[in-house]
Amino acid sequence: MVEQVSTNGGYVWYYLPDLSRRWGEMEAYDSMVWVQPPGTTSMGQLFLDAYHATGDEYYYQAADKAARALVAGQLECGGWNYMIDFAGEESLKKWYRTIGQNGWRLEEFQHYYGNATFDDNVSSDAARFLLRMYLEKLDTVYSVPLDRAIKLVLDSQYPVGGWPQRYPLKYEFSKNGTEDYSSYLTFNDGVVWENVSFLIQCYQSLGRRELLEPINRGMNFYLITQQARPQAGWAQQYTVDLQPAGARTYEPKALSPSYTAAHIRLLIRFYRMTGDQKFLARIPEALDWLDSCKLDESPAEDGRYVFPTFIEIGTNKPLFVHRRGSDVVNGRYYVDHNDANPLGHYSPTRHIDISQIREEFEEVKSKSVAEATKDSPLLSEHPAGTGAPQKYHPLADWVQTSSALGEGADPVNIQRVQRIIKELDDKGRQLSKHGYTSNPYIGDGSNIAATGEYASTYVGDKTDTSPYVDRTDQQYISTRTFMNNMRVLIEYVEKN
Asked: How far apart are CA 460 and CA 458, in angstroms?
């Protein structure tokens, strides 16, 4: 991976075994690396984990190469785009005009802004990795780019506490008559929480007390955007005057049960960080609203209820998104109350365990403030100990994380390790099937028929460059597979 697959130390998500094609969230040029997880940033973090487990300097050097790729691709504003093209900006602009512009469902790639994005944790994860790299050996090569990344997060925060999806602010991409949403205050894909958590980590590790104010503003943003009864939930994004807003043309102005559930859990964590009752005050209203949105009367065996992805503001009716056409040129998304023919690439429903959230809420209420806030990352008198910087704090106890090995994964034992080793080919690769592929770019879409043939498919016609899962026996080099296997090996080494 380090010596043959990587490009200038960076990575995308999937590769054909002969490296003739490669993909991040979309197909990439061979001069590109993907910042967006599970790309360069995720691989760099993994190599640091391997370094800690083994003490082998090789893994630190691999992490250093990934970090230097990120430094090379850091934008003037201090953040990152989804990808870095080492062939230069003209090559990147060509990619946007061709592959990016023709990804029907991936509207975030249909216009080249030239600015940084917080979508999908792109800039926050890259900044977090640079923080960890700096703290690892106090290498000053990372201090300046880290400071620039911190400054980006501070400069881009709105006075009310939220963040836009992209920065510096741009208003130049209107899609099918909708406004450019990239300046909206955005919860979608973790924008607010990832920036807040990054600042908390900087506060803990670097002892920068001036970060407390923007941290608190970010947490308070959750309070001021909660809607009034009886729809006391949240939208995915808001206009600058704090009105719920749509984003991509298949993300209408609506309230979101899944984001509401996630925000309730974050409010509980904010209370545990601060001891301030204001973060718990309106949780019962949000839970009551969630109860009113369920699509089924009884939960599934796992305790989760089915909810619509979108709820109409005012009527509390489910909204369902559909599409017609065959490609990005003639295709259109539209919204109604009919659940027939849903989108294939954006789930019309979500599954939420309300009982578990209620239990978590009742549990934290039953504790004293001192007990609830024990070990809070924000209440320490000396966040960085006797000397700053101290160490990297992953915030594992405060962030909603999924197991790196997956829920219900086999225990890490010698049999599992041996299985991974046995599956390696003669080049040291574990090739996997069902990777991402896509239609190669062959030109802009031209079919003007308002067909319903692609209403529920993952991609449209042959001009649609949106990736999809390859169900054939084609094999791929997958960074996600590599990382999952490495985590098994790392955990085994650490325990033995």
From this structure: 7
